[in-house]
Amino acid sequence: MRVHRVIQGETLRDIAKQYGVSVRDIVHVNELSSQNVIVPGLGLLIPTREGFAVQSYVIQQGDTVAQIKQKFGVSDEIFQAWTGLKASQTSLPVGTRIYLPVRSASKRAIEVNGYLTPSGTTSDENILANDSDATYVSVFSYQARANGTLVPPKDSTALVTAKRYQIQPLMTVTNFDGNTFSTSLAHTLLANASLRTKFISQILSTCTSKGYAGVNVDFEHMQPADRPLYNQFILDLRDAAHARKLTVSIAMGPKTADNPNQSWMGAFDYKTLGQEVDYLMLMTYEWGWVGGPPMAIAPVNQVRSVLDYATSVIDPQKILMGLSLYGYDWPLPYVQGKTRASGISNNDAQNLAVTEQSTVNWDVASASPWYEYTSGGIEHRVWYDDPLSAAIKLSLVNEYNLRGVTLWVLGNEFPQLWYLLQDQFTVKKL
C-alpha cells in the first residue's frame, strides 16, 4: 500500500498511472463517491503490492530538505504531501516532528478491538462482517443500575456473528444511566462493599451465560475521591473473573501526568490499574468534540504525550491505543456553549469534501486533515482522519511497542484503516 495526497490538477487516471494500478482499485479501497471527481489535498490509499511503514523524525538544527529526502529516500512530492512543508524551503522549523514513509519492516502481531453499539438487527451482522479481522468486539453497553443490576443491550445477533468470525466478544459495563455517565451512580456502586460484591456477581454470571470471553469496564466521570474504590473494584473483579477464566480490561481517559485531584481523570490510577488488568483501552480521541472548538479529534502530538506518560507506568504490551473512526462537522462561527458539531464517519467526511469541491488542508502539528465548505449560507469546518493521518498514528504502535489498537466506534466507515492494518501488521485471532 501507499498513501497519496492529491495535488492541484491531478485526476484519478493520472494517479492510477503513476502507481501502476487501476482507477477502479483506487475507488474501491477508498470507497470514493465518484470515479471522476477528486479535490486537492485528498488523502488516498493506493493498493500497490509494495508494503510501507511510517517513521517519525524531529527536525534538527542544520537539517536541509535534501538531507531529509535522502535519509528517507522520498521525492519532493512525497516530502511535501507527508509533512505539509515545501520541498523548496531553505529553512526548516527546528524541533518539529515530521512523518515520512519508509520501506516496510517485518510485520508485528497485534490485537485490534472495536466497540460496537448493537442494534439487534442484521446491521450488526454487516458491520462485523466488514470488520471481521478484529481480535475483539466490545459490545457497548451493559448499563449498571444503583441496585447492582444491569440493563443489557440487544446483543444476541452480535454475539452469534462474532463467533462466526472468531472475534472474541467482550461485555462492556458502564455507569451510563441512559442519559449520561453518572458520577453518583459510580460512587454508589463502588462505595458499598456488599453492593459491589453483588454487582460483580451480576457481571460475571451474565458474562458466562451469554458467552463473553471477558469484561470491559468503561466507567467515566468518576469522582477523584473514588480512585481507591475503583482500584479495589477492578482488583476484586479481576480475581473473580480469572477464577472463571475470563479476562478483565478497562477503558481509560487520556492523561499526560498523574493528578489524583483532577476532575474526572483523577480517578484513573494508571500505574495501579495497569498492574491489575489483563489489558486496557486508552481513549486517545475526543480532543475535538461535539461541544468544543473545531480541532483534530485525535491529534498525533496529543496522542504521543499520552503514550509517553502511559508507557512510563504501564507495560506497553497491555495498551491498546484508541483510534477514531469518525470526525466532526462544525457550523461556523464557533460560539462556546452554543455551537454543536455533527458526527460524521471518516469515509463520509472524505466524500463530503469531494461533493462540496473543498480543498483538504493538512495540519502539521496534529497530522490531521480538515476543510471548509458552505451550505445554506452557513460555513462549516470538518476535521477527520484519512489514510495519511491513520498511517501516522499506526506507526506509534511500533514506536511504543503497544499491544494494539482499539476503535471507536464500529459502524462508522473507514475502510482504508483495515487495509493499513493488514499491510503493516498481523492481526491476532485468539
Search tags:
TIM Barrel; 3 domains; Membrane-bound Lytic Murein Transglycosylase D, Chain A; five-stranded antiparallel sheet; eight-stranded parallel barrel; 24% strand; 14 helices; alpha/beta; 430 residues; 35% helix
How would you describe what is shown here?
The chain folds into three domains: 1-51, Roll (Membrane-bound Lytic Murein Transglycosylase D, Chain A), CATH 3.10.350.10; 54-103, Membrane-bound Lytic Murein Transglycosylase D, Chain A, CATH 3.10.350.10; 108-335 and 382-427, TIM Barrel, CATH 3.20.20.80. It starts with a strand and ends with a strand. The strands form four sheets. It has an eight-stranded parallel barrel, surrounded by five helices. A five-stranded antiparallel sheet has the order 14-13-17-16-15, covered by helices on one side. Strands 1-2 form a two-stranded antiparallel sheet. The chain is built from 14 helices and 19 strands. It has helices spanning 12-19, 23-30, 65-72, 76-83, 122-130, 156-164, 183-191, 193-210, 227-243, 270-276, 300-313, 346-356, 387-399, 415-424; strands at 2-5, 43-46, 52-58, 97-103, 108-116, 136-144, 150-151, 168-174, 214-218, 247-252, 279-282, 319-324, 326-331, 342-345, 361-363, 368-375, 378-383, 404-408, 425-427. Helix 5 (122-130) runs parallel beside helix 6, helix 7 packs across helix 8 and helix 13 packs parallel to helix 14 (415-424). The longest helix is centred in the middle third of the chain and has 18 residues, at 193-210. The radius of gyration is 22 Å and the shape is globular. The mean pLDDT is 97. The chain is α/β, with parallel strands linked by helices and 430 residues long.
